[in-house]
Design a protein that fits this description.
This is Na+-translocating membrane potential-generating system MpsC domain-containing protein. By secondary structure, the protein is of the alpha+beta class. It is built from 4 helices and 4 strands.
C-alpha cells in the first residue's frame, strides 16, 4: 500500500523534526511540508531559542545567529537529502534554506530530480 501525498508530507515533517532533535539538539515548534511538482517545501516555526531571539535584536546579532544556524543545517544537509529521498524514492539534486530571525521561521526547499506527481 502506497502512502497518499498528504501522508508523505506528514511523514517528512515528522522525520525532519526527529532529525532536528538528534542532530541540532532540539526541534522546531511546528513543521509543515508541501510537495509541489519537483519541490519539497518545509516551513519550520519556532526554531530560535529565547537567547537567540534576544541576540537577534541587533543587526550584528541577527547576522551572527543566521550564520551559525545556517552552518549547522548545511553541515547536515547530506543526511537531510538522504532522508527525504528515501521517503519519496526520488533523488534530490539540490537543497536551499533560509532563516528569518525576525519570525523564527526556517524554510527548506529540496529540488527533486523529477516531478513527484509523475511518480504517483
Amino acid at each position: 500500500m502506497s502512502l497518499t501525498k498528504g501522508e508523505l508530507e506528514d511523514k517528512i515533517s515528522k522525520a525532519v523534526t526527529q532529525w532536528e532533535k538528534e542532530y541540532l539538539g532540539r526541534g522546531s515548534v511546528k513543521v509543515k511540508t508541501d510537495i509541489l511538482r519537483n519541490m519539497v517545501i518545509i516551513v519550520l516555526k519556532g526554531i530560535l531559542t529565547p537567547a537567540e531571539k534576544k541576540v537577534a535584536e541587533t543587526q550584528e546579532g541577527m547576522l551572527s545567529i543566521k550564520k551559525a544556524r545556517t552552518e549547522l543545517v548545511e553541515s547536515g544537509k547530506e543526511q537531510l537529502k538522504e532522508l527525504i529521498s528515501a521517503l519519496l524514492g526520488i533523488p534530490i539534486y539540490s537543497f536551499h534554506t533560509d532563516l528569518s530571525t525576525r519570525t523564527g521561521e526556517r524554510v527548506m526547499i529540496f529540488m527533486l530530480e523529477r516531478s513527484f506527481e509523475a511518480s504517483e
